[in-house]
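CORE FACILITY INTAKE
Project code: CF-77B
Contact: R.S. (postdoc)
Sample description: multi-component assembly, two entities in total
Requested service: structural model of the whole complex
Turnaround: standard
Below are the sequence entries exactly as provided by the requester. Do not edit them.
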Amino acid sequence: MKRRAPFMLRMTKFLVGFKLTPIGRIAVLGIFLSAVGGVTVEIPIYQIFCGFICLFGIIEATGIALRPKLEVSAWLPEKTTIGETVTGYVNIINQGWFPACDIMCAFFGMPKELKHTDADSVIHSIPRGEKATLPFTIRAKHRGEFILPEARIHSTFPFNLMRFGKAKIPECGLRVLPTFSPLELLELPFSHKSQNIGMTADTRAGNSPEYLGNRDYVPGEPARRLDFKAWARVGRPVVREFQEEFNSEVAIVLDTHRPWNLRHRKRDHRKLEASVSLAAAIAHHLDQRSIPIETFLAGEELHLLQSSAEATHFESVMDVLSEVEFTPTDQLPQLLPMISEAFESVTITFCVFIDWNENRERFTREIAESGCAVKVFVVNDGRQLSMPIPDDESNINLVDPQAILSGEVREL
Amino acid sequence: MNRWRMKTHEKIPQQRMAAVALILVQSFTLAMLMNSYVFPICAAVIACGGLLTYRRGWSLSLPGDRWIFVLIAVFVVKYSVAPRELPFDFEFLFSEFAYEVSSFCVVVELLFLFRKENQDKLSVSYLAFAIMGLVFSGNVRLNSVRRFGMLITVQVFFVIWMWFSLKSRRTVSTSQPQSNLWRNSVMCGVLLVSAIAGTTMSTLLHRHERTLENLIGAYLALGDRGQARSGFSNRGGLEDITNWQSDGGDQLALQVVSKTVPGYLRGKVFDEFNMDRWLATLPRRSLNPTVMDHESPAVIESDYFYELDDEFSKESPLMGITPVDGETAGHCFTPLNSVAIRCRTKPISVDRSKIITRPNEYESLSYSIHTSHGPLHDRDGAEDNFLQIPSSLDERVVNVADSLFANANNSHQKIQAVSQFFRRNFEYKIGIDIPNDEDRLGYFLESRSAAHCEYFATATAILLRMGGVPTRYVTGYLVQERNEIDKSWVARRKDAHAWVEAYDKDAERWVLVESTPSDGVPAASQINPWQQRREAIAHFFRSVQDQVKRGNFSKAVWLLVLPLLWIVVAGGAVMGMFVLVKRKLPRKKRPVIDSDESHSELANERMLMDSMLAKIGLHRLSNETTTQFAERIEMNSQLEQAVQFSGWYRNYSTCRFRPEPRSADLEELRVQREKISRTRKQKQLGDHTHA
């Protein structure tokens, strides 16, 4: 059973966290400072103390007496991207007897990755029974799925020292997607199973081999391939020739493994963000070319996406990428037997690794041996690699994380 | 210039105008309260210029917060190095420092105005510096006119503060009509009411300060009281010593080992009197131990020796003082004629009046004082500090001084005149009722009210100063009580006292002036012998503890072992005496234990007879005498030979308790028993034959 925090702690959190505005906190600091000097009336600091005490007392009494009674409803978009601002709106109806003055919106316990940029916006007055709209803007500093805490619509009337009112907006979610620079060129590796050009008009359900034409029968071929109607027509045994058609179905593997290490946290974090950004750029490029992504392996999570000709699941990939974090254990060797079945229908695999080592080399080799074309991007500046990248492997590319983050990587 | 020039602004935001107004108010406060004019005027001009530069778009790039720390460093250097040049009329504690802090805050605010990063909007931390600057600028004593001016200034400051606060937000425009009239009316009303309430509260607080102070004093008297209220800190009120006396009066404060009566031991000397408070403003100097060329065996070797006066000699009397009261542990209570001190602390600090303090001395470690044989001479004379008179002195005090010194020509006569005046015309009483709007000294001298020692000492000091006699107000203990058990002198809290030392120019020395009526001077109290014993034992253990704290473990052990040795020796002596006495006393005759063999033979006979009767079924009880048993046998009608048996036991009884048993009697009993036994066997044999 969760133990309740002591009353004094809760009261302090309430006072500092909600009741006092930033200016109110400075005023309290002034009260304490003047109280020290106010121990004697020999010096006039006691006058400041008395002034502050009276001002605070009267503001509190006025604020309580005139605290607004509001009905609120809010709207906020569900998604945004890193660095972007998203604006929501609070519709406020004053249901009290008096005009609701100095109405503001504040989120308490906001995740540190988000920032309420216009917390100082105020509606000076809402007459009785009237309605007003208060916009609020949130800037996301980090990707992820966040719960916006309940917003309190309150009044700081008079003088912006304390907050009054209990109107709340319930919690809501906000997904922050990663940013990326779109690729102008992504070279797809060749695969025997792949068809790099052309578009299929049908969906996967009901797919059939493509009819190419007839040719003469070669002895030894299965008799079931004989086209008897054509034989009767042309007078010699002929067979129908078909070609199996494959879509270029792609898998993306995003490696998120980071050994437990207190050092280089900031550098490793930058590499992860660059990897996520690169994976998003690849997914976006494939989406532009209508190449479906069938499998997406991000860290320890394998996502099998329901592929179709119309949907490339770029949105799904972005949703997954918004929540990717470092994994402390290297799961690739353990995952390989399990994902081999999922990779049977995949023709091209893009691997985005943070490091290059034996496990990753074996993983890449086994995928390639299954008939799947592999292209590997190692997001590293080359100085912290566990193993050097072989020079003769043209499908393994070293990409500088800083170049990815600064948008310099346009062709891969 | 391009670096400074940014985009121009057509309109100055109200928040910025409020910020400039705050600086103007602070500058006015600095000028009004601290008599500083150059800096406030410059600050005000620069602040107004800030509005102009804002419109022109001139600004200075100061990113981050590091510039504040650089500015702090600059002010610290300035405060440490630059000479003090402010003409403070009514300086209070750390007023110079407060002035520097206030100036620093104004400079920070000015930089906020010119910062490029604050061009769009001023940070709310601006207000923190504003309030800090105002508070520190108020750290100065005021007369009534300036106090009133400050009262108005504070209210103006709050109005501007609120203006700044209101304009620190972004307004969201709405299509609805705004109720600005109602809103502004409420805000004006709040400001007005709070200004009135604040002014009233300030006035009431000032008017009823003494009542409040008494309440606080009463509260503090119940609880823990620190040095600030003990009368031995740098500030001394007119009730501090009295409060100290009444707070646990019987509690031991000092224990003194001295051959003579210690008398007045000084704890603190005050030189400046203002606003009914004494202040110790004499500079202190750090004193390093003096290298000695001779040793005194009476002191502890690990202590440092500090020579306070040239008159120290090897024969200077020694006085060992142990501070028992932990709250005054850092003070050194010393007599007026102290010439040297030995203590564990290094270094010590001493002021012009030879008041010694031991910084960082939180433990009650003892110290030793060397005193001169006679009064000490001070040929350097007194400083001007000891002639300071309060700036606002009541006229009644002046009148009393004039009347007292009309016929006095020299210092001695003036001292006598003042001392006699109080001793003849006043009575001692703890506590004095003075109307709120009355000057304390003036009322006390005019009404000749009964008062406590601080009033007498203060009035004496001020009157003598008015007569041109340098005086200093002294607080300490008057030590006269002796513990008859361990022959040490003790001072309790009730022995705390305030007196005056005046400089006798003719004798070139400081003399002690006691003007408190005799019943107010602490006297030696009668302590019952049991309490004296308890305190003597406590003093003994305190001495051991003192040695342990000093690291003199061998001496501590010796102190503990010494009484044990005495106990062993005394116990051995008592035992020896006891043995000797016992040997000399005549011995008493011991009772002779009967060891005659005939008794045991008698017992054997009886046991044989008992055994015989037991076979018949007749048992002699353990608590049954033989005579009683014989009677019981006779009463048994079923027993054959009952007469013979009972007769045997009666005979036995006769033989047993005969003084000198004879063998003939034993033989007779044996024969008789054998006869009974034989008769009984024959009878049994006859019965078997018959059967």
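Facility notes:
- Residues 553-584 of chain B form the longest helix (32 residues).
- Confidence is low (pLDDT under 50) at residues 221-229, 591-595 of chain B.
Invoice: internal transfer
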